[in-house]
C-alpha cells in the first residue's frame, strides 16, 4: 500500500520534471532571436516561401496554441521532423541512443565493479595499503578529465600498443576504451561514497549487537553492515548514470562514435531547432527515468524510506 | 491568588509535509485550558509524544498555537505585535533537557550570557555585575566566564543555561526535563538549585517531565497529559494519594521501585500479555472510528459504551465540598 | 541468594585500562562480582563508573586497543573467558552469554526483518535448518509477548513501537537459551509504563530459562524493582554489594546512602534533597585512596591515602569503606 503510494508519488514527480523542462525549452527556443523559418528558408527566400515554412513548423499560430501543440507532441513522443534533413527527430534519436546507452551502462558497470568493492575494502581495512590505493585512485579519478584520459588511452592502447581498435563502433572492443575513460571519474565518486558509507555503518550500534550475537566478523561486516552501507550507493549510482549520459556526449567526440552526443552537437551547429528541443526533452526524460528507477530500487531494498 | 498564566482551549496542529498536501495535520495539543498562579510550580507529566513540549512552545509563542488564548499576567499574547511580544518574551524563559544544544559551542559563557543583556541595552558595568552575581548564584565560579561550553560537565552546563535564562529577569520559567540528561548524583544538585532560585526571585515554574517522582516532589499542582489533553489535574499531594483517572493510576503504578504504588491499583493488565492488550486495543480502535471516543479508551480497563460515544471533559471532583480541592478529572468512570 | 551454590559466572579482580596517547584511564580497578543461576544481579552506577565496561568485558568485546586488561579473570563454568581466542569466544557469545542493549532502535539492524535477525543465530549456533529456525523464532516471539502467529517475523524494526522493539531485542538475546544474560540499561530509552512491562518480562524469562542476569542501570528504582542482588559501582570499584533487601534497608556505604537520599519523591516534598557535591571523577584522574573521599561527608585523612577493601562478604553484605555503616546527619 505504502509502496504503491510511494511509486505513484515518485512517478508524478517524474512527470512534473519533464513538464517543467519541456516548458523551459519551448520558451528558451522562442526567446532566442531569429525566426527559425528565416534560417531554414535562407536569405534569398520569398515571403511566400517563408510563410509556407512557418505553417509547416507551426510558428504561424499563436504562442499558447504552439505550446499546447508542443505538449501534445511530447505525449505522443513525436518531436517533429529535423529542419535540416527532414527526418523524424524521434527516429534519429532512437537510431543513436543504443550506442550512448551502451557506453553509459558499460561506464557505470566499470564504476560499480571497481569502486564498490574497493570502497568497502578501504573502509574495512582502514589506513591499510588497500585504503591508500583507494585514496590515490579516487583522487586521480576526480582530478583527471574524462576526455583527456580518453585521448591518453587512445594514444597508448590503440596507437602505441594497438590492442584496441582506433575508431568505429562495430565490435565490443570498440567500446572498452571509451567506457573506461567514462567510468574512471565516476568510479572515484562512487568509491568515496562507498567507503564513507561503510565506515559510518561499521560504527553503528547494531554492529555491536551482531558481534554480541556471536556472528563471525565476515557476517558482521559483509552481511549486517554492508547491506546498510549500499543503500546510499544505489541512489548515487543512479544519479551517476544520468551524468554519464552527459559525459558520453564528450567521449563520443574523442572516439568519433556516432551516438546521441554527435547528433545533438550536429543539431546545434546546424541550428536544427526541432532536433535540439526534441533532444533536450528526451535527455530529461531519460535522466528522470533513471532517477525514478533508482528511487524504486532503493525503496525496495530499504524498507524505511517508504514511511518517511 | 492572581494567575500569571491562563490558557484557554489551546490547540496546536502540525501540518504534515509531503507532495500533494494530502497528509492530514497532527494534533499535538488538543484543547488544553489551565491556569498557573504567581509563584506556583505547575508540573506537566506525560509520556513521550503526549504533547508536553508542543504545549509549552505554544504558550510561550515560540510556536504560536493554532487556536486558543494565552494570557500572560492578564495580557493576551496572541493580540500583541511582534515587537510587543518580544518585550513579553524576556519575562518567559525556557530551559531544555539537553544543555549541549542550548549553548553555542563557539561562544564563551560570558558572551552567551551577555547576548540577552546587550539586546536589552544594559550598560556594560551592570552587565558584568549581573553575570557575576548569577554565575556565582548557580555555583559556577566567575573566573570561568571566558571558558567555552565543552570545558564544562553536563551539570555545570545546565547551571549555566539556568543562569543565562535568569539574565532576562523572567517571571515565568518553563523547565522541560531539565535534569533528565544528568547523572543521578547531579540531578539533586540542580533540583535544589531550582528550588532556591524560585524562592530568591519569586519565580513561577512550569516543570515538564516524564518522572512523576520528581514532579510530585517539585510541584504544587500536577497536570497529567495524555494524547494532547490534560486528563487529570490536582494539587500534588492529592494526585499522588488519590488519583482518579485510570491513566494517572497506571503511571503511578509504573514507577519502578514501587515507591508510590500504595494508593494506586496494582494493574492487573501488566500481567496480561502484550498480544491480549493489542487485541483489545485493535477491536476498540474500530469502535473509536467516529472520533468522539475518549482517547484513553484504547488502553482503559474501565471503559464502556459511554466512553465510546462521548469524550469526557475536565470536570471538578469536589462533589459538594465547601472548599474546592482543585482536583479535576477527565473521565466518565472517575 | 544461595551463596553456597557454585557461581555461574565470576568476575575476579578485573582491571581495565584505556590508553589514549599519554593518557591512561583506569576504567576498572579490580572488581569482583559473582553471578548465580536464576538470579538478577543489579549493577548500579553513574555514567563513567565502569558498568558498561564490565559488561563489554564479560561478552568479550573490549576494543583493544585502546582497552587492555590489567588484572583479573572472568570465570564461566570454570573457564577463564579472558584466555579464549576470538573464535573460541564466539561459541560463548550469543550461545551461552547474550546481551540486551539500551536503545533497541539503534541496536537492531534496520535493514533486516526481525525474523532474519533471530533465525541467523539459531542457524549459526544450533545448526537449525530454515524451517526449524522459523518455528523456534515464532515460539520465541510468543515468549516475549509479541504474538503467537509470528507476524512480527516479517516486520522491519522501524515498523514496531519502542516497547515491541525491545521485546524483539530480548527474543534475539534468549534465542539460543543462554545461561547468562546481560541487560545494559534495557529500559532507559522507554516510557515509564513500558518500562515496568519489560522489567517484568526479564524477571519472567529469568525464571523460565534459569538464567543468571547482569542488570545494569543508573536508576536505583529500576534495580529495586528487578534485582535479587545489587552491587554499586563507583569510579571503577565495587563500593557495596548485597542482597536487594539488605542493601535498600541498610545501606552501608555513604555513596549508596546519599544516592538513595538524593532521589526526589512526593514524601520528600518541602525538604531539601541530599546532594553529593562535585561529580564523578574522570577515569584518568581517579582520586588517591578511596576514590569517593573528595565528595564524602565522612572522609578523613585515612580515606585520602588508603583505598578501602570490599569487606563483609561473609555476612552477605560487603562495603568498601573505612566508615562503613557509620551514620551522620544527611
How many H/I helices of chain A? Answer: 13
Q: How many angstroms separate the termini of chain A?
A: 14 Å
Low-confidence stretches of chain B: 18-22, 262-271
Number of strands of chain B: 12
Order of helices and strands of chain B: EEEHEEHEHHHHEHEHEEHHHHEE
Arrangement of strands in the largest sheet of chain B? 6-7-8-3-9-10-12-11
Number of helices of chain B: 12
Q: What's the overall geometry of chain A?
A: flat
Give the domain tally of chain A. 2
Mean pLDDT of chain B: 85
The share of residues in extended strands of chain B comes to: 15-25%
Which CATH architecture of the largest domain in chain A would you pick? Answer: Orthogonal Bundle
Range of strand content of chain A: under 5%
CATH fold node name of the largest domain in chain A = MetI-like fold
Describe the largest sheet of chain A. none
Helix content of chain B: 25-40%
Q: What is the CATH top level name of the largest domain in chain A?
A: Mainly Alpha
Helix content of chain A: over 70%
Note the overall shape of chain B: globular
Give the structure's gist in a few sentences.
Chain A has 13 helices and no strands.
Can you describe this structure?
The complex is a heterotrimer of chains A (308), B (334) and C (330). With 308 residues, chain A is an all-alpha fold. Chain A has 2 domains: 2-75, no CATH class; 97-269, MetI-like (MetI-like fold), CATH 1.10.3720.10. Chain A is built from 13 helices and no strands. In chain B, helix 4 (109-119) runs parallel beside helix 6 (154-167). In chain B, the strands form 2 sheets. In chain B, strands 6-7-8-3-9-10-12-11 form an 8-stranded mixed β-sheet, with helices on both faces. A 4-stranded antiparallel β-sheet of chain B has the order 2-1-4-5, with helices on one face. In chain B, strand 9 (221-226) and strand 10 form a beta hairpin. Chain B has 334 residues and is α/β, with parallel strands linked by helices. Chain C has 2 domains: 9-96 and 179-319, Rossmann fold; 107-175, no CATH class. Helix content of chain C is 30%, strand content 22%. In chain C, a hairpin with a 2-residue loop joins strand 9 (229-234) and strand 10. In chain C, helix 5 (130-143) crosses helix 6 and helix 6 (162-173) packs parallel to helix 7 (192-209). At the B-C interface, helix 7, helix 8, helix 9, helix 10 and helix 11 of B face helix 6, helix 7 and helix 8 of C.
